Amino acid sequence: MPKMTFVENDGTEKEVDAPLGLSVLEIAQRNDIDIEGACEGSLACATCHVVIDPSWYGKLEEVSEDEEDMLDLAFNLTETSRLGCQLIITEELDGLKVKLPDSL
């Protein structure tokens, strides 16, 4: 089974199973990672904002216009910011590393 790593604000890393076909948001919620996901993955908020490790960013599908619009609402946006609900795990993403954005 693919794996992925979440990096907490304090730098703590948590490697978890990342079942194929699930979103980063769903995986976070299954593993008690502190990501809200207020709209439950319907692309209507930015509360599942994650920062992709730069070495992985180029392997992701392009950001949709709708996702870009929602990212504009996110705090602490970076060049590798994405919404966890829009990132679906595939074999190619085995090992994906994402950081939770710094809180205000």
TrEMBL record:
* A GO molecular function held by the record: metal ion binding
- Top-level division of the source organism's lineage: Bacteria
Where the record annotates domain 2Fe-2S ferredoxin-type, the positions are 2-104
**UniProt record, GO biological process:** P450-containing electron transport chain
Keywords, comma-separated and alphabetical: 2Fe-2S, Electron transport, Iron, Iron-sulfur, Metal-binding, Transport
Read off the InterPro entries from this record. Answer: 2Fe-2S_ferredoxin-like_sf, 2Fe-2S_ferredoxin-type, Adrenodoxin-like, Adrenodoxin_Fe-S_BS, Beta-grasp_dom_sf
Tagged with keyword Electron transport: yes
**Family indicated by similarity:** Belongs to the adrenodoxin/putidaredoxin family.
The identity of this protein, by name, is 2Fe-2S ferredoxin
* Species this chain originates from: Kiloniella spongiae
